[in-house]
Amino acid sequence: MVTEERVREALTEVEDPELHMGILELGLVYDVNVEGPEGEDVNVLMTLTSPMCPVGPMFKQSVQSKVESIEGVKNVKVDITFTPPWDPKTMASDDVKVALGIW
Fold this sequence. Notes:
This protein is an alpha+beta fold. The protein has one domain (about 5-85): GMP Synthetase, Chain A, domain 3. It is built from five helices and three strands. It has helices spanning about 5-10, 25, 55-70, 90, 95-100; strands at about 30-35, 40-45, 75-80. The protein has a three-stranded mixed sheet. The longest helix has 13 residues, at about 55-70. The chain starts with a helix and ends with a helix.
């Protein structure tokens, strides 16, 4: 059965294509919703580091592909939002803050 934990575990392998850091550690994934009797439908709500991100469509596809690779997942929807806007000072992990020089 697919769970939110399994989806988030898979997403730890996805990196932001420009910063080369994990999207979960960056705080780019806002929500993961698993639905259906076996958890076969997964919705991911995420953001990008910038609304003008030139690799946004490729980045979204890499998230979708990673979730689709989880055994039992049949349908994946990845939504991009900019509300709230990404703020590494409040959304990123401490390790990312250090790496980005935000202290």
